[in-house]
Design brief:
By secondary structure, this protein is α/β, with parallel strands linked by helices. The chain has two domains: 127 residues, Four Helix Bundle (Hemerythrin (Met), subunit A), CATH 1.20.120; 235 residues, Rossmann fold. 40% of the residues lie in helices and 19% in strands. It has 13 helices and 18 strands. A hairpin with a 5-residue loop joins strand 14 and strand 15. Bound molecules: 5-S-methyl-1-O-phosphono-5-thio-D-ribulose (MRU). 5-S-methyl-1-O-phosphono-5-thio-D-ribulose binds next to helix 2 and strand 11.
Length: 369
């Protein structure tokens, strides 16, 4: 998508420098900084510190990490070491392991001499595929928005609530939850987006930055406002992303998603999840029992970063000094709270049957694996 009129992906390969370039998201929405990633430690730091974040983008970044590993030393032993090193960076988003497994499975059967070039080619492919998947999710989600718009008076916007940032910078391009929004806006359907701030990291500010750059009307709201807005009939639908969706359609996403799903159910607001197929964990059924939830540093809760009055990025402490902070980064929304999963192949019920019907090729392989 565009930043100040120039099209960017959230990561890209620079042929001249023979290196990966990323947007360092720690400084957004206030500063747009590009960073080169040169070493395996850089890759791990970029993921852990959330310079890159969002499940699909973490996966694509890890694929370039494996390409670097293959360039340094293409032996089986080194690829295994790199797999383990990158796999432990963040535990919840399954796209990380999906990408690492795909790279390893592709490379190990090849002669060592062929592995560096093959690994880089595969990383490019994974990135390009992500863009295609997200565009298709947008097309499928657009039809849902179009139907809701058809029931509105001329010019009245479809009011969509979203949580976290499942936008283009959380993917390689388009975003998942935001892709239907971009495509509805571009199709001339009026929309207005309620953007949850998403404490503690305030990814809602990233979503606001994205939507604002694309000219989409939106309002940044506190995490606690959604239920009230739904009670008063001010939300037509919710669309969120996912970090891992189980075979039966339980959805693990940014902390606070579950509360929004409960409020949506209580108020008859449709609750949709934009789901790229690499985010499905076919090995897991019960999301609450089986998905590891990342526990992040308490400093993310006790402190907050923003733009100070002198125009500089600064950090302030919110709590009394010494107050302990708890920081579970994700929660699980059980499938019965989800109206539908918007995938690249169409929209399905959040159930084992719904997912298997859309992805018979993938669900079958996982069961026999
Ligand atoms: C298309 S991104 C989907 C999810 O990864 C997104 O909603 C989310 O929870 C991101 O969490 P983050 O901790 O910012 O990486």
């Amino acid at each position: 998508m565009k930043v100040n009129g120039t099209h960017y992906r959230s990561l890209w390969w620079d042929d001249d420098k023979a290196a990966l370039q990323i947007i360092d998201q720690r400084w957004l929405p206030h500063e747009f900084r590009i960073q080169q990633v040169d070493t395996l430690q850089d890759f791990a730091d970029a993921i852990v510190e959330m310079r890159v974040r969002g499940a699909p983008l973490i996966g694509a970044t890890a694929a370039y990490g494996m390409a670097l590993a293959a360039k340094i030393d293409p032996s089986n032993a080194h690829l295994d070491t790199a797999w383990e090193f990158l796999d432990k960076t963040r535990p919840t988003a399954i796209n990380l392991r999906w990408a690492l497994n795909r790279c390893r499975a592709h490379l190990l059967p090849l002669p060592e001499a062929d592995r560096p070039a093959a690994a880089l080619k595969l990383a490019h492919e994974i990135s390009d595929e992500d863009v295609g998947i997200n565009h298709s999710i947008g097309q499928n989600g657009l039809e849902i928005i179009r139907k809701i718009a058809a029931g509105k008076k001329d010019g009245e916007p479809v009011r969509i609530l979203t949580h976290c940032n499942a936008g283009w910078i959380a993917t390689v391009d388009w975003g998942t939850a935001t892709s239907p929004m971009y495509q509805a806006h571009d199709a001339g359907i009026p929309i207005h987006v309620w953007v949850d701030e998403t404490r503690p990291r305030n990814q809602g500010a990233l979503t606001s930055w994205e939507l604002g750059s694309h000219g989409i009307p939106h309002t940044y709201i506190t995490d606690n406002a959604g239920g009230h807005l739904m009670q008063h009939g001010l939300v037509d639908m919710v669309i969120v992303g996912t970090d891992r969706t189980t075979r039966r359609g339980d959805v693990c996403n940014k902390i606070g998603t579950y509360l929004k799903a409960l409020a949506a159910k209580a108020n008859n607001v449709p609750f949709y999840v934009a789901l790229p197929s690499p985010t499905i964990d076919w090995t897991v059924d019960d999301g609450v029992a089986e998905i590891p939830i990342e526990e992040r540093q308490e400093r993310e809760v006790t402190h907050i970063q923003g733009l100070t009055d002198d125009g500089k990025i600064g950090v302030v402490q919110v709590t009394p000094v010494g107050t302990p902070g708890g920081n579970p980064a994700f929660d699980v929304t059980p499938n019965h709270l989800v109206t539908g999963l918007i995938t690249e192949r169409g929209v399905c019920e959040a159930s084992a049957e719904g997912l298997a019907a859309l992805f018979p090729d993938l669900s079958g392989i996982a069961k026999s694996a």
